[in-house]
Amino acid sequence: MTVTLHQGDLPDGLALGPIVAIDTETMGLRPVRDRLCLVQLSAGDGHAHLVQFAPGAYDAPNLARLLADPDTLKLFHFARFDVAMLQAFLGVVTAPVYCTKIASKLTRTYTDRHGLKDLCRELLGLDMSKQQQSSDWGAAELTAEQLVYAASDVLHLHALKERLDVMLAREGRSGIAASCFGFLGTRAALDLVGYAEEDIFAH
Q: Which domains does the chain have, with CATH numbers?
């Protein structure tokens, strides 16, 4: 694994391929309160690019262009949160997207454990450490442990997608998964305007 840290944006001309795994690290779990600190990206080649943001400095045209590129599939785990954070701070609607958490919930109905750590353990035989999950991602200088943790969140998503795609096809749920993925931009927008908990489809 190699990790490259960039300040404020991706470098010009960086090509990551047709499928890019993406994750975010933030100061908390409320997009309207907590700021975006780090965006991690990987092409599934064992290399991770990390973009660190200083408070209030979110002008990242290269990253924004990648997020909106219709020819690049953006691969997330729990895309609802990450897409909302990227929309709130970078002003871009990320699309198209694929969410391994949604794919897991549509296929692994024999369990209620759909976290990234659980998926990696069952489907890939990997044991991921989550020790740095609740650390200070707003620090100006991130520790080596934080960088390794952040990178690990995107390095295995391509392999998980391959396994989950097989399961979705086997269970006849590929179509409904695609529809869910297509709705994630709207779901994120609802979160950002205050409909995180209320079900607007309910009676």
A: 2-192 (3.30.420.10)
Around 203, how many Cα atoms within 13 Å sit in the side-chain half-sphere?
0
Alpha helices in the chain (DSSP H): 61-68, 79-90, 100-107, 116-119, 144-155, 157-170, 174-192
Q: ω before 96 within 30° of 0 (cis)?
A: yes
* 203 vs 199: CA distance, rounded Å: 9
Question: Per residue in 43-72, pLDDT tens?
Answer: 999 999 999 999 999 999 999 999 999 999
Structure tokens at 91: 């002003």
- In the block, which residue shows the tokens 């990790």? 3
pTM: 0.94
How long is the chain? 203
